[in-house]
Model the fold of this input.
Amino acid sequence: MVINIDGMATVIVKMKTCDKTHKITVTATEDGNYAVKIASDCPKIAAYGKRLSVITLDDIIDFPKSRIVAGDVRQDISSNCLAPIGVINAGWLEAGLMTKTLAKKSVDNEIRFVDDSGEILP
Done:
């Protein structure tokens, strides 16, 4: 789920694999950076949000060099956690790299676990 209120973008990440929910808000700051706030019922993601706190446009667009996915910032977050991708998506929306129209069309982006025939796992 993506919510955009003028001056900030919020993404809700629901991790059904661990039954945790993360509310990620990215807000442009006057110095050209972006403030990150994460409210989560997962202590690891809450701590990650505090470590991250401020990102740059480069962090949003240059995945290999981004602090968002850097090991020293992620620390003990599981590699399959979607919270960092949620930060990137909220950042894209806040930076104007994604339109509100596209965000509305993408509200139900999903990952499906399927078998060899393409059927959802039972």
Q: What stands out?
A: The first strand starts at residue 2 and ends at 5.
